[in-house]
Amino acid sequence: MEMKSPPSCPKTVTVRRNPHRKARPTPSTNIVLNPTPSTNLHEISSFPIDEILSMQIPQNPQNNSSSSSSSENLKVYLRVRPLISAKIGDQAFKSRTKNVWPQNPLKKNAVKEKSAKSNRGGDCITINEPHSITLLPPLALQVSKRIKSEVYQGFSYVFSANSSQDEVYEKMVSPLVEDFLKGKSGMLAALGPSGTGKTHTIFGSPREPGMVPIALQRIFKRTTKSCSESSRSFYLSIFEIYSERGKGERMLDLLLDRAELCMQQSTIKGLQEVIISDAAQAESLIARAMLKRATAVTNANSQSSRSQCIINVRCVAKDLDKEDDVLVNDAVLTIVDLAGAEREKRTGNQGARLLESNFINNTSMVFGLCLRSLLEHQKNPKKQLQKHFQNSLLTRYLRDFLEGKKRMTLILTVKSGEEDFLDTSYLLRQASPYMKIKFENVEGSSNLVYNKRQVQSLSRIEQPKRMKFSGFEACSIEEGKSTGEKNQHAVEDGKLDIKNRVSVDFNPVDLAKRERNYQITQKFAKAVWNVLKQYNEKLKVAESEVQSLRKNLSDEKIRNFELEQELKDLKSCCNCFEGSSVEATFAKVDTSLECVINTEAFESSETAETNVEVDSLNYEASECNSTPKTYDSTPRKDQDAPSQIKADVHSPSLMTSEHNVISEQCESPSTEHQDVLNQINVDVHSLSLVTSDCNTISEQHDSPSREHQDVFSQEYQVAFFNLEVVNTSCLSVENFNDRDCQNGSESNTATGQCINQTSEIISLNNEDLNASNYWAIKSNPPNADTADYVASSSQLLSTASTDTRSSVLLFPSESVQAEESPNSSPSSIKVLSTHDCDISYVPKRKPNLDASRKPLNMEKPKRRLLPASSILLRDISALGVEDETEKPKGSRNGKKVAVNEGKRTQGSISLLRLLKNNLNI
Ligand SMILES: Nc1ncnc2c1ncn2[C@@H]1O[C@H](COP(=O)(O)OP(=O)(O)OP(=O)(O)O)[C@@H](O)[C@H]1O
Fold it and tell me: Which domain of life is it from (predicted)?
């Protein structure tokens, strides 16, 4: 069988005032119950024995109540009013009925029955000893409400029903009066339900004088004996706090025909003080004042007090009391007869009397709260006094007493009848110093359990903690909000048992504050809840967005992966079909940039002979991997002073601008020269534009066209190399003009030849450039510049070579040089081979450049990518064969070049010489 581990013990233990009524298990049963498996011992927290032991349990007030009370400013006495015999009760009842207004016959009969029961010997108060009593609930309440017996302790003294007025005075008032005579102020206050003997105790009757007359007699008797009359003066003042019809508190001077008074900071303004010389005078004044006091006849009391009556006897010492050697100075003895709390059912009050009852009950409740606070404070000084005194004039006036600053003696008056049980219990819970509750039957005194102290109801009042009320308790609280009387009604009706009756004792002000705090807290919680709900919704939306974004991201990744795969496939296909052509392209570019231009040193400054030799192009595929950025002019072994020409092919703009500057420097060219130069400018400018376009296109082009872009990049580098040659040609033309124009007309021929060569070179260069431009146009929509360039280039391409395989090598030819005219610049260009270069990438057809205005509609041209240098050199050799101006385009061939090469060597040499000079700068 599987054993469940018992719940862990709480760290704090709440001691219930009324524990469960189930019979306590016997010790043996206790051991058997809740067997704890040894295996689960470690899961059970240790019993907080230390915490329990550390709790401060009040000591037994029986042992030290007298001594402790004597040292405090608050003393609490209890006096039990004697039960009235049946005979006396009947007479009393008859006498009361005359004064009670109006009487309900039903209530009248009920009172008769209750009086008869109480007179038959029902007694709820048992005096255990002089300082404690036991309050026994009626049998009906014990059965129906399960009310337990209550033990109240800590009284300074408990006066039994048989106690006399003198006894009460001697034990209770005499110390107060003695202190008064010694100059120490004090107060005596009677508190208790209506008809319990407060007024009787304070004022008494002619046969049984109360505390006031006795005190006055003692005061003046002692004064007369001890000192002269002139040494002390006593002043008497009497006033009452009354609420007419419950509208508001008023202070009335009972010595001045109920003159209205007002209070300013615990002092009453306008209060009449009458100096008293003896006890008789004082008693007379008091008697007349009592006649002015508001009283009424109720079912509970034939002469019920309806106001709080305060009597002040002030002692003024004229000089030092020599006999007692004490300083007597303005001591005040205050005696207060409070109006007793009353219940409607018992008083039968209606109308104005009922309103008076509300005022009386409220005042009694406030006073009881102040008293409760003071008692708690005396037991535990850490507890702060509650400011309940502000809620009534009475407590405001008695503030110093209720705060413990002055000495106060309190006499609680109770009746011992069974019908008075609830009233007595209510009063004692408010004002008794200590309280015990019996959990067993009345006789079982051995099972008394101490509660820490007092009435928990009042503790709850002073500690405004949230409480969870049941419906019935809530109703009781609502009743408590209205008046204290209604609370008592609830008690009277037996709707509350003793355990729960505490709930009716809440101060309405506290309850209102609690209710307000509860409302605020509830609304705040709702607001927080709404905000959390909104955030939750936003969070859900955000999560959905995140999920969608993640999904999109995954899709994009998949798509990207597919594209990469496709790209790889395309690359692999291109490598298969065009790999050799691409390699050839690189080889072409490489070799074109590695072409060597050897120049021979000038033998003389006037007629420098330049032999330009261009090594055969090296088309080895192994050299394609190197990226040529410079092309060196290595000296040949047969050259005396070769000069190296290095040019950066990656500075097209610089070269272009240089070319433009050079072109502008041609100041006086002939018309033909000027046309050619202009054309060169136009072409070069177009080339610049194309170059820039190519750069842009290269950046913007997608990956699938990168192959073409690479090829194009290589080609435009070649084109710029050709441009460099063009630039040098321009320089040659310029220098040639400057120099040869002075020598005569012969040089004009050479100049024209040179220009023709230059034009041809440019035409050939533009062929390559145009071919490269085609790729740019193919990759990017044409713009105006590109179209213009293509148009202009197409005109020049009329002389484009259609050779599919070409390779040229320029070198200085001594034999040709010897055939040159001495007047002309010796130069020769010899075509060594036109088919040395083997380019595997051979376009099938040449693109129709005239239709290049619509490049987008064109298919990818399958042109032959020829090294620009080879074309350049080939055409240069062609220029040497035949004059461009004399022979039609397209008539160039190898044979004609061989025939006419001697006529063009002079311009070529000048061109190269000027090129060298320009580069040396
Ligand atoms: N100890 C007592 N011995 C004999 N009679 C008493 C005693 N206490 C009170 N009585 C009588 O009980 C009746 C009511 O007493 P008393 O008027 O003093 O009550 P109370 O507490 O002042 O009532 P209330 O608050 O309504 O003024 C009086 O007639 C009084 O004589």
Answer: Eukaryota
Contact 219, 296 (CB under 8 A): no
**Percent residues over pLDDT 70 in the chain:** 41
Nearest CA to ligand 1 atom 16: 197
Residue with tokens 């309850």: 511
Q: Give me 437's structure tokens.
A: 């509750």
Lowest mean pLDDT segment, chosen from 221-230, 408-417, 701-710, 809-818: 809-818
Smallest CA separation from ligand 1 atom 20, residue:
195
Please, which residues have CB within 8 angstroms of residue 321's CB and are 6 or more apart in sequence? Answer: 226, 227, 231, 232, 327, 328
Q: How many angstroms separate the first and last alpha carbons of the chain?
A: 111
CA 257 / ligand 1 centre spacing (Å): 25
User: What ligand 1 atom has the least distance to the C-alpha of 413?
Assistant: 21
Task: Choose among 562, 907, 549: nearest CA to 739.
Answer: 907
> Cβ(88) to ligand 1 under 6 A?
no
Per-residue pLDDT reduced to its tens digit, 599-611: 444 444 443 343 4
Tokens of 680: 């060169």
* Residue 313, H or E segment: strand 308-317
Nearest-angstrom CA–CA distance, 477 and 498: 15
pLDDT digits (tens, 9 = 90+) for 637-650: 444 433 343 434 34
Q: Quote helix, strand, coil % in the chain, to nearest 5.
A: 55, 10, 35
Task: Name the residue at shortest CA distance from atom 8 of ligand 1.
Answer: 197
Pick the closest to residue 192 from 15, 332, 360 (CA basis). Answer: 360
SS3 at position 651: coil
CA 202–ligand 1 middle distance (angstroms): 10
**Tens of pLDDT, residues 674-718:** 554 454 444 444 444 444 444 444 444 444 444 444 544 454 454
Is any atom of ligand 1 closer than 6 Å to the C-beta of 339? yes
Residue to mutate, 79, 85, 199, ligand 1, most ligand atoms under 8 Å from C-beta: 199
Residues 195, 100: Cα–Cα separation, whole Å: 14
Residue to substitute in 77, 78, 80, 81 for testing ligand 1 pocket (most ligand atoms within 8 angstroms of CB): 81
Using CA atoms, how far residue 725 sits from 593, 645, 652, 672, in Å, is 12, 11, 12, 20
Taking CA atoms only, the protein residue closest to ligand 1 atom 6 is: 197
Q: Which atom from ligand 1 is nearest to the alpha carbon of 338?
A: 25
> Is pLDDT at 725 greater than 80 in this prediction?
no
Q: Which residue has the tokens 């006795």?
A: 214
Cα(433) to centroid of ligand 1, in Å? 24
> Can you give the length of the chain in residues?
921
Helix residue spans in 741-857 (DSSP H): 746-779, 784-796, 814-819
Q: Which atom of ligand 1 is nearest to the CA of 340?
A: 25
The torsion angle over the Cα atoms of residues 563, 568, 570 and 572, rounded to 10 degrees, is -170
Average pLDDT of the chain is 62
Q: How far is the CA of 303 from the centre of ligand 1 (A)?
A: 9
Determine the distance separating the centroid of ligand 1 and the alpha carbon of 159, expressed in angstroms: 15
| 308 phi, psi to nearest 5 deg | -90, 120
ipTM for this prediction? 0.97
CB 407 within 8 A of CB 186: yes
Task: Record the tokens describing residue 201, joined without a space.
Answer: 């105790």
What is the spatial distance between Cα 199 and Cα 610, in angstroms, rounded to a whole number?
151
285 with 294: CB under 8 angstroms? no
H helices within 318-445, ranges in order? 344-347, 352-379, 393-397, 399-402, 421-431
Give the Cα-Cα-Cα angle 744, 745, 750 (nearest 5 degrees).
105
User: Which atom belonging to ligand 1 lies closest to the Cα atom of 304?
Assistant: 26
The SS3 call for residue 848 is coil
